[in-house]
Amino acid sequence: MSALKLKALISGAGIAGPCLAYWLARSRLKVSVTIIERSPVPRTTGQSIDMRGPAIEIIKQMKLEEAVRSRGTTETGTRMVNSSGKSFAQFDAGDSFTAEYEILRADLSQLFLEATESLSSVRYIYGDSVESLEQTEQNVSVTFTGGSKDTFDLVVGADGSTSKTRSLIFDDKVVKDGYNLLGQYLAFFSIPSRPGDTKLWHWYNTPKGLSIMTRPHRNPSTIGAYLCITMPKRGQRDPIVEEALDKGTEASKRMLHKYFDNAGWEAARVLEGMGQAEDFYMSRAAQVKLPKWTNGRAVVMGDAAFATFGVGTTLAIESAYVLAGELSKIQSSNDIPRALERYEEVFRPLYAKMEELPPFFPQVAFPQTAWALRLRDSFLWLVSKTKAHKLLPVDSGIDFELPQYDWTSI
Fold it and tell me: Of 44, 58, 172, 245, which sits with the fewest C-beta atoms within 10 Å of its C-beta?
């Protein structure tokens, strides 16, 4: 008996989409996967991300563990510093802040791209996106912004927390209140390294929710710089920041100069480097929580379905594996809607263990007042000195037994 054909469209060529394409290619199905990406070229920017729990096992099964380690950021721990650069608390890799597997988003995305772009069953289209969807019981008709049209057995939205595909798959009732701002803005860019730089993540805070961080890169000539602006409450927006974001990169850089000039520590160095940075990126921190992830022959996954601070990459990889696994069981095209429902039935309980942010986060970690900052610093100093954090379960809520599926070799 010939293999069942599956023609799938994946919107988004970041982490979740290519990972899903890989596992679909390893299913018993005869797949034809199109990955469409709004960016005209593969994205080469992105901050440091980590992977934990079963996501590591999935990476191993993809035979990418060695490549992930070789492209790791080389970060060995986290150091909290004051305005003069003096450390008052430090945590080793694997303890809390720095995970065992740390890699730049662009590097992980490149690994997934390399693992799939040579497959005859997978093709990438850049500089285009989904304009509209129309579902029937037999297929999904798609119109693209570039003007072309096509039909698919399955459509997957994997285009990030600000997903446009999400609103095309679901009605307003489902997506309403699904995108929730955390009251935080984060700018990332690379700056030239200096001889005194270490392999530690340096974290500096100043009142009014401002923070400057630097993190090591595998490339010894640069380090990652992060400028963070945190509002007093989740959901709050800063009108000045919002206006700058709307106007683009140069306006955002000018705004950051006003906020961080004379902020202390290495503010001058970071701001100087920002002016020359070609990989500058700034965004709003948000959490995505939806009442459902599937609708007929369409589904959302990764950040488009459940953007979650700190575990987004882990969830993206794990959801791709489970979704492909459940689809691998179908006996006919008519089984696709039920397979998508099974994916949600399997993965939602796993996601539920990780969906809640720590109480009062991120505000508690980025205080608004000097006294609140002193209180936070004292707490971190105590935890660092007593090693109390080592008494907590490692990856609590992240570890679970990975579902088993029948895969083929590619």
Answer: 172
